[in-house]
User: Fold these one by one.
Assistant:
Number 1:
Amino acid sequence: TIDSTRLINDIYNKINEVKRKNEITVAVMLPFMLNKPETEGALYVEYYEGLLLAVDSLKKQGASINLYVYDTEQSKNTVKNILSKPEAKNFDLIIGPVEDDLIEMVADFALANNINMVNVFSLKNEEVTHNARIFQTNIPHPYLYAETTQEFSNRFKNRKVVFIKDNNAEDKKDF
């Protein structure tokens, strides 16, 4: 009903202060590795190009978006420097970083400063399970494995199944 929806929204707004403003400030913290162009940084550059297309589309619809972009260089010191910048506490959204130790550092900062954060790339990071400020765009491996094994069991419960194990596939050990 309308009253219950209003009540839920009121509770949410008390817990998570809603800042209404005409613009959104987004920080992108990815390991572009611009000082080492032969590395995997190309993946993050491609992601950033797609993000720019989305930002452009939103701006054409009237959104005002301030975008801050940082190369984390896969370095704790670099991320600490980024988070110490005066504008950092005014971010509305942080996208990234990628490495688990850096995600934890930024997630703690985001929680302490009421900033939402998006974990775009890390599948194994567990910060999302205990930090209400984190959004994860990919399903974590434990959840994926649980869903997959349940679906597999349902589909093939009356069949004989043979699994061939690759001893070199350590990343699939849990699965």
Number 2:
Amino acid sequence: SGNHYLTPADFATIYNVNAGNITGAGQTIAIIGIARVNNQDITNFQALSGLAAKTPTVVIPPNGIDPGPALTAPPASGSVSDGQVEATLDVTRATSIAPGATIDLVISGDTNSGSGLNLAIQHVINTNLAQIMSISFGGCESLNGRGAVNFFDALFSTAAAL
């Protein structure tokens, strides 16, 4: 058909993860995002991949903004937001490589005081919400400037120390 799919077993092979020894049990993975996921997309992926159904717990930082519900079908204008697509990808990968882990989707829209992504990251760090934090948003450091690089370096250094 020309379609190509990346299954949990493919992911484990590509990243040299022995899936039989890693379950994620007892761990919490915080997925950082700016949009909710359509839980049916998550459970469909899991069913097609032979995984137990497990949807993420949505966490909105107290100083964040709820970005609203996930779209369940493409809108008339085209497709779901990039934020929802990215969150769906991140959640499906986390649940497939660590099926025993608790998955928290930590999200916020942008506020007058800052970026929703930054608020979500800071919430995970400040509350020690998870042992693992995954963020796949952003851009090349050279495009974001020294100030952004220093900001994220300080955040992630704090997270690593915790």
Number 3:
Amino acid sequence: DRVNIAGNETGQQSGFAGKGTSRADAVWTLDGVEITDMAAIGASPTYFDYDAFEEVQISTGGNDIRQRTGGIGLNFVVKRGTNRFLGTAKGYLTGEGLESCNVLDELRARGIGCDQSDHNDQITEFGADVGGPIFRDKAWFWASYVNQDIRLVRSAGNLIDRSVLKTTNVKGNWQATENDMVSV
């Protein structure tokens, strides 16, 4: 429902629909377990740290028979621990000084410049993840944390729209039998 140019809609939930369905038909799943927001049907119940996912599966038609609607299906597969201890740290920064200004000449003639238009004031993100074995070849863990600080300048009232999103993920896997894996 909106175009995110250089992060100018970061921290905002967007709605979408596909192939003749409504927004309410979207289904969100995490490792195959439905998490669709029941208070805002078809919407995500949370914001995500996309670096926490091993895989993102999107289905726009011919959905799995277990999906309760014919709408878009989104499944986020969370990373998991392995027999090796691994970890990463990350940091991202962008802001006003790193952006160009693309205000049209007609607007400039009316006295509207880059300071009066919607733009990013600052977007920062830092985080880390770690995973590894609890018992080699039997049980593993993985955890992550990320903090996003998003500051967008909105021309309506020249306000700063600030969103601080803190996301923690923890996952444990246990190979209960040769054929059965338990995930939490």
